[in-house]
Design goal:
CATH topology: Growth Hormone, Chain: A
Number of strands: 2
Largest sheet: 2 strands, antiparallel
CATH superfamily: MFS general substrate transporter like domains
Order of helices and strands: HHHHHHHHHHHHHHHHHEEHHHH
CATH class: Mainly Alpha
Structural class: mainly alpha
Shape: globular
Number of helices: 21
Helix content: over 70%
Radius of gyration: 22 Å
CATH architecture: Up-down Bundle
Distance between the termini: 11 Å
Amino acid sequence: MINRKRLFVGSFVALVVTSFGFIIRAFVLAEWGREFTLSQEDLGWIAGAGLFPFAITIVLFSLVIDKIGYDTSIRIAFVGHVLSAIVTVMAGVVGDPFWVLFAGTFILALANGIVEAVINPVTATLYPKSKTHHLNILHAGWPGGLVLAGMFVIAMGDAGWRWKIGLVLLPTLVYGAMLLTQKWPINERVAAGVPYRDMLREIKRPLFLILLLIMIPLAVTELGTDSWITALIENVLTEGVHPGWVLVYTSAIMFVLRFFAGPIVHRINPLGLLACSAFIACIGLIWLSNAGAAVAAVFIAATCYGIGKSFFWPTTLGVVAEQFPRGGALLLNTMGGMGMLAAGLLGAPILGSIQDKVIDQELQQASPAIHEQVTAEERFGLLGAYNPLDDSAVEALPPGDEQVVAGVLSDSSQIALRYVAILPAFMFLFYLSLIFYFRSKGGYKPVDLMGEQATGGVEAPVQA
């Protein structure tokens, strides 16, 4: 007997674990840089390691998950989450700190990919008549975890970063207790009798390939920015407000709004929701990049950005689930994999590279003497050569010179956000064109997979 409620709630908690790992690393990223003398691009690669390996396991497990089962997959994810915490806290104890942090974060991302390889198709199978709505509710677990972990980390204050990393184990133990012994449904594609070969053919469909490409700017806008937002705002806020509150605040907005996706989708359909979200996110990022250091201005702009990014990820998954049900777990999870790949390999490192380049150039223009004092040897990054900032040298500067560096850091953060704002502007135009495309075909309608009515999404065959 399938316990639908327990599976859904357990899946929700498993997604909370993925966001715990994400936000805790975002909060301690700057601390790692100071303790281990890492450049902004180094930190970008570590942040990226928390994203792009996700694509490896989410796609790989989508290909075999119907064979090995959801139960085995979730057990592997559980072991990965525990192992990632153990490896990460060993940074500075064994090996090169950069590579230990990279490895621990890499393992976390692999486990996260397995989690989503399980929970996305399971939710689509459990709730076949309300896929977009329930995928949005499921993915409220992501911002919910961001809020909860963010508040924990802020409350811990100056406690060592290793204790903060250990917080990941709390929701890990909860989802393990809820899911490791459960029976799971068979994916709706399998229950409907759609052959494996037909599932593979679906990936070649032009509309899916287009949606897959648009996932790149979407993921960079949401996850790429979120992975850096705490470090970016730290350089802007000057009134004693913890910069992590911006990410916690925008995540709280996402958490609440994702529960209301169903009524909104019913009125304007998923594509209309995505178009509105892209427009609002673009305005929010532009506003945030020009908000200055005033706390009220930063949080008002962050409100706009938070509203805009709320529905991107789960609504896109909902569109794929509704338009390509024959693609089963593979198409649904390939979309998520592409998003994490883009955010990890492009979003996080490039945002770091933009800052490194801008800091180098702006500081050279502002004061060549200070530039020579506080920069290290030339390095080559994604955007070319630059001289990285040496944080220990900055701390040794007299107050006046330190203020010059602080001004440059603030400018670099806001310039980085301004570049990102181009992406949701492009997405807005894309979603508008997709709306007109569906209107020319009679309007947006979910594809009703034959056999769906028979399973009801609940009493489908159970995995042996």
